[in-house]
Amino acid sequence: MAALRRPVYERNQREVLPDLKIKDITAFPIRVPREDEDAKNADAAKNGAAARNETAEGKLSHRPPVIDFGDYFVDAETFTSIYSKHHETTVIKVETDTGIVGWGEAQSPVSPGTTGSIIENLVRPLILGRDPFDIEAIWTRNYGAMRERGHPTGFYVDAIGGTDIALWDIVGKATGKPVHKLAGGRYRDRIKLYVGIGGIDPEKVADIAEEHVGYGYQALKLHLLLDADGVAEIARAVRKRVGPGVMLMCDVHMRQSVASAIKLGRELEKLDFAWLESPLVPDDIPGAAALADALDMAVAIGEWNRTRYEMREAFERRAFDIVMHDIARTGITEGHRIGTIADTYNIPVAPHVGGGGILSVAATVEYSASCSNFMIMEHSHHANEYKNAITAEYFGPSNGYFEVTGKPGLGIEIDQSLVEKYQVS
Ligand SMILES: [Mg+2]
Prior knowledge:
Blueprint (H helix, E strand, L loop, with lengths): L1 H4 L2 H4 L10 E11 L4 H11 L8 H5 L5 E3 L3 E4 L6 E3 L2 E10 L4 E6 L5 H16 L7 H11 L9 H21 L3 H4 L7 E9 L3 H13 L4 E5 L4 H15 L4 E5 L6 H13 L4 E3 L7 H10 L3 E4 L6 H9 L5 E2 L3 H18 L13 H12 L7 E3 L3 H5 L13 E3 L12 H6 L4
Parallel strand pairs: 7-8, 7-13, 8-9, 9-10, 10-11, 11-12
Antiparallel strand pairs: 1-5, 2-3, 3-4, 5-6, 7-14
Helix pairs in contact: 5-7, 6-7, 7-14, 9-10, 10-11, 11-12, 14-15
The structure holds magnesium ion.
């Protein structure tokens, strides 16, 4: 009876987790070739679907001309973004002294070895011996370590963001809780998705739109790499085909001027598009503010930003209406900070998931579940098959939604032998 009279906090002391220590961190830069028959068949088997016959060359035929560098290519006219023909990213494994292992991902759509090298040479010595529960402190100190060196974004911040995701996975596994329960709590039981599609021929894009509505998605985003008139023509064809009930968005990948984006936006407003995405180059904050002011429809930007510092001016000038930061660039910790600032400005969050792999997808689901002002999450229906090349069990949505589970950590299981199979230097 004496034990029962002790204060509650004393009685509970036995149940307090011991401190953990980070024992090791390993980066796995990976490349999953689109032509990899093994990956396609294995993923199709996990997914219970037939293997698809998608190739790198097939991907290039659906876009304007490119300059081909072998594994990489870039738009020949605008030279906007370099892409890989394959699925490339950097998977991160963090081990603790108790045997608990966390997995994370630093999005690396090109040159994943660069991110891997930063983790090995910089992040590793900075975090060895730390308690993984010190997540926010670790991100903040990692960020601060390279401030004066002029690396406030890019590969370095991707590396610390991916590490942050692995630490959240550890903390979830150590406590037996899903990440969203620890990172703000569960705001919703399922995560609404939109899928990205694209092309250059109006009727073919409308066919693809119809195909994806058939998979159960009620929201589609068109990646359209044309001039304003070309974009509007495809947008009209897709709206006509899918009808008024499907949510449509349009991403023009920084290819417009303020004037052409205003012209395009006014066309998209008539077609009831939910947002115009990435109309201008990221540097043009004054242009973005003028555009957001000129249009009635929402403008969405932010996939290229990794920190709240980078976004401050755009927030202050209200240069956009929807923020779409990418969790495999920000990490979950800084992603939540950006989401909270957005909430302060009454701006919804639509997380970007582009070149990121399956850990990026899982981390974004957990983030979205715990984000108060979440709107909708990006998804790629067919790329999800390639992304699952490293999972033990297929991780995917059904009928346009990810269910929010109660599984500990990020809720997915990575097969290290598969990660090693696709590892590149
Ligand atoms: Mg985009």
